[in-house]
Amino acid sequence: FPSHDTLPADVNYIAAFLTLRCNLNCTYCINRYSDFVLPQEMGMDDWIKGLSRINTRQDLPITLQGGEPTIYTGFYKIANSL
């Protein structure tokens, strides 16, 4: 990957899809109509290492998404590492 000092100004958030698994059945969810399944979820240490490499701005949130991201085994460790 090329190295950049900062992300482009038009980037307004960073989405990290930790998992597509979900324990809910929300009627508005776009994932429930998809047949896509992740063959393997990325490990917690890899998420932490990868997200820590991002040179972000103060006004640029990193959102942990999914499915339901809180059912990802390392969710709280990843959140606390950010």
- What count of helical segments does DSSP give? 2
Which structural category do the helix and sheet elements fall into?
alpha+beta
Helix and strand run: EHEH
Query: How many beta-strand segments?
Result: 2
The largest beta-sheet arranges its strands as: 1-2
Helix content: 10-25%
Beta-strand level of the residues, as a percent range? 5-15%
Largest sheet, in brief, is:
2 strands, parallel
Give the termini distance in whole angstroms.
21 Å
Average pLDDT = 86
Given as residue ranges, the uncertain stretches (5+ residues, pLDDT < 50) are: none
Backbone CA Rg: 14 Å
Shape call: globular
Task: Explain what the structure shows.
With about 80 residues, the chain is an alpha+beta fold. Helices cover about 20% and strands about 15% of the residues. The chain is built from 2 helices and 2 strands; from the N terminus they run E-H-E-H. A two-stranded parallel ribbon has the order 1-2. Strand 1, helix 1 (about 45-50) and strand 2 (about 60-65) form a beta-alpha-beta unit. Helix 1 (about 45-50) runs parallel beside helix 2. The longest helix is centred in the middle third of the chain and has 9 residues, at about 45-50. The mean pLDDT is about 85.
